[in-house]
Amino acid sequence: MIDFGFDKIALIGAVALIVIGPEKLPRVARTVGHLVGKAQRYVAEVKAEVNRSIELEELQKMKSQFETAARDVETTVRTEVHDATSSLSQSWNEASAALNGPAADSHDAWTPAPPVYQHPRKNWRIKRGAVPAWYKQREGVRRHVQSGAARVARFRPPTSGGAAR
């Protein structure tokens, strides 16, 4: 902005006092002050908007760089996985051909049968009985079957009238 020193401002004030007059000078100075303040706020808003747009452009550039880096990593990983899969399948085919012998077809590769599920045949009642009664009581494990109404009656506070139903 324009650099005004004290001597320049004093000269402008003296000229304004002579031209405008002492009666109107305070009102004119106040109006000029308001206009200068508005101009400064406008310039600050424009600077802030320019800075925001510059930051937005930088963020968009960073986003595009990050996306390209992510795409490069993805393609690298895909190619590595594809290479590993192909080498593994080739080794598997060679190993299965060696197991089946030279007369076997390469299309009839030996595949192991999936494991059959077998129930562990563990008796959970025996395990539950191995826990001490004091531990079950402390942890709140139910030891006896009880209906919902009996449970409510058990935890119902006693009536103060003394008459039981």
UniProtKB/TrEMBL annotation:
Name assigned to this protein: Sec-independent protein translocase protein TatB
Which InterPro entries does the record associate with it? TatA/B/E, TatB
Membrane topology term: Single-pass membrane protein
Which compartments is it annotated to reside in?
Cell membrane; Membrane
Per UniProt, subunit arrangement is: The Tat system comprises two distinct complexes: a TatABC complex, containing multiple copies of TatA, TatB and TatC subunits, and a separate TatA complex, containing only TatA subunits. Substrates initially bind to the TatABC complex, which probably triggers association of the separate TatA complex to form the active translocon.
Native species: Ideonella lacteola
Its annotated function is as follows: Part of the twin-arginine translocation (Tat) system that transports large folded proteins containing a characteristic twin-arginine motif in their signal peptide across membranes. Together with TatC, TatB is part of a receptor directly interacting with Tat signal peptides. TatB may form an oligomeric binding site that transiently accommodates folded Tat precursor proteins before their translocation.
Q: Does the keyword Transmembrane helix apply?
A: yes
Here the segments flagged for biased composition (Polar residues) are 84-94
Q: Where is this region: Disordered?
A: 81-106, 146-165
* Keywords, sorted A to Z: Cell inner membrane, Cell membrane, Membrane, Protein transport, Translocation, Transmembrane, Transmembrane helix, Transport
Q: Which family does it belong to?
A: Belongs to the TatB family.
Keyword Transmembrane helix: yes or no?
yes
Name the domain of life this protein comes from: Bacteria
> NCBIfam families, per this entry?
tatB
- Indicate the principal place this protein occupies in or around the cell: membrane
- Report the gene name: tatB
